[in-house]
Amino acid sequence: MENPRTIGEILNQTKRIEENNWNSTQYLNSINMLLSSNDLGTTKDESLSKKFEQLNHKMEDVNKLTEDLLSHLSSKHN
User: Fold this and answer.
1) Neighbour tally for 13: CB within 10 Å
2) pLDDT tens column, 33-58
3) What is the pTM of this model?
4) Are 15 and 70 in contact (CB under 8 A)?
5) Coil, strand, or helix at residue 9?
6) Which residues contact 37 (CB under 8 A, 6 or more apart)?
């Protein structure tokens, strides 16, 4: 992409995605704490916990991809 202004705007939008990803990760951590009982860290609902664990893994993948995109866009923007 030749237009630096366009790359800059894509970079800004991707940074907003990264901020949203961070918020989503924080919400997932809070939910995981709510699903854990105080009794040696066992889960209150195993099925629900597994679903949130899957979501957490996918969120980690999204975070990594977003980080890679930001790195790539930053190198093009500078």
Assistant:
1) 11
2) 888 877 766 788 889 999 999 999 99
3) 0.79
4) yes
5) helix
6) 43, 44
Which residue type does 73 have? L
Bridge partners of 36, per DSSP, are 43
Report the C-alpha gap between 69 and 10 in whole angstroms. 10
Side chain identity at 57, as an amino acid letter?
H
- Rounded to 5°, angle at Cα 63 from 41 and 43: 15
The whole-number pLDDT of residue 1 equals 61
Please enumerate, as own/partner, the contacts of 33-37 that have beta carbons within 8 Å and a separation of 24 or more. none
Residue 63's closest CA among 36, 31, 29, 32? 29
Q: What is the pLDDT of residues 2-33, one digit of tens each?
A: 677 888 899 999 999 999 999 999 999 999 88
Which residue stretches of 36-45 are H helix? none
Structure-block tokens of residue 20 = 């949203």
